[in-house]
């Protein structure tokens, strides 16, 4: 507990109120929504097959499927309407690649957002030191933005195929008994895929968040100032002169010589002093002139 309290005391949590940290919090939250709505899904649809002989009919054929949507492994038993015999049928398609890719990107985005928030709050000085941390952050953010684009598009296409493969009207065509004219086959209810639709929406929301975060991370890299010609590395920055005596006019005044001429120190050689002031300077020049004559 002492270590935790010390970390909390040293943390700079005000960064969360700034766009850099606030967007990371949103990325962390929406990444959870994205992979949880997809990875935890399970659905079911029901069909009925009514044979001429009622004893051979099955009015409640249930077909369950779930993530990662390897539908070719999902099977169900349907009546043949021939003396109580049944046949085992499988759904069509394997859409695990797009679903698992989407969930994987969501999990890694969640982990990286959490790590970046910890860096912002506890080691912000090292993060901004020589802009190395910000540049790494920018590169990783760009990669995740691209991955969210690819995974969201792939999962949107995969979800469309899952909906088609689990449509009861389409699955009924796989049942051989439904081709008989005296057999009545129909769907009882369709699977609910609203959660999967939400996962796709969360995927594109994450894409927008990571793209938007690129701008705020880019401003931390120092590249903008370098492109504008105003960026100076921290170890080479020149301190601003705080007085005219440091590299200012006092060292470069060409009129401040020691051999006569104009003297800027009025308090020592000029002014209206009792010892002569300006008159003292003018009395010396005629004397020098008379000696030359």
TrEMBL record:
PANTHER family: SYNAPTOPHYSIN (PTHR10306), SYNAPTOPHYSIN B (PTHR10306:SF32)
The entry's keywords: Glycoprotein, Membrane, Transmembrane, Transmembrane helix
Pfam family, one: MARVEL
UniProt-annotated location(s): Membrane
Membrane-protein topology: Multi-pass membrane protein
Alphabetical list of InterPro entries matching this protein: Marvel, Synaptophysin/porin
Residues of the MARVEL domain: 15-222
Ranges for region Disordered: 238-293
Biased composition (Polar residues): 281-293
GO terms for cellular component: presynaptic active zone; synaptic vesicle membrane
Family classification: Belongs to the synaptophysin/synaptobrevin family.
Superkingdom to which the source organism belongs: Eukaryota
Positions of transmembrane segments: 25-44, 101-124, 136-157, 200-218
Chief location: membrane
Official protein name in the record: Synaptophysin
Lineage of the organism: Eukaryota, Metazoa, Chordata, Craniata, Vertebrata
């Amino acid at each position: 507990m002492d270590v935790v309290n010390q970390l909390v005391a040293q943390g700079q949590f005000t960064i969360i109120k700034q766009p850099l940290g606030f967007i990371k919090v949103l990325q962390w939250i929406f990444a959870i929504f994205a992979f949880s709505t997809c990875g935890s899904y399970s659905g079911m649809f029901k069909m009925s097959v009514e044979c001429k002989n009622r004893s051979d009919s099955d009015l409640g054929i249930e077909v369950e499927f779930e993530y990662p949507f390897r539908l070719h492994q999902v099977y169900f038993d349907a009546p043949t309407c021939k003396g109580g015999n049944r046949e085992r049928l499988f759904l069509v398609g394997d859409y695990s690649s797009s679903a698992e890719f989407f969930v994987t990107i969501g999990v890694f985005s969640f982990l990286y957002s959490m790590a970046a928030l910890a860096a912002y709050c506890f080691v912000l000085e090292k993060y901004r030191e020589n802009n190395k941390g910000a540049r790494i952050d920018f590169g990783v953010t760009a990669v995740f933005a691209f991955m969210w684009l690819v995974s969201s598009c792939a999962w949107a296409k995969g979800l469309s195929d899952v909906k088609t493969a689990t449509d009861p009207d389409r699955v009924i065509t796989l049942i051989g008994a439904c081709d008989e004219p005296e057999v009545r086959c129909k769907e009882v209810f369709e699977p609910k895929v609203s959660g999967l639709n939400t996962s796709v929406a969360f995927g594109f929301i994450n894409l927008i968040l990571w793209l938007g975060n690129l701008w705020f991370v880019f401003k931390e890299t120092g590249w903008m100032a370098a492109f504008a010609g105003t960026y100076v590395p921290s170890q080479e920055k020149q301190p601003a002169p705080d007085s005219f005596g440091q590299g200012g006019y006092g060292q470069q005044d060409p009129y401040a010589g020691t051999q006569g001429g104009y003297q800027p120190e009025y308090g020592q050689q000029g002014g209206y002093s009792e010892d002569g002031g300006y008159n003292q300077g003018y009395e010396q020049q005629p004397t020098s002139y008379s000696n030359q004559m």
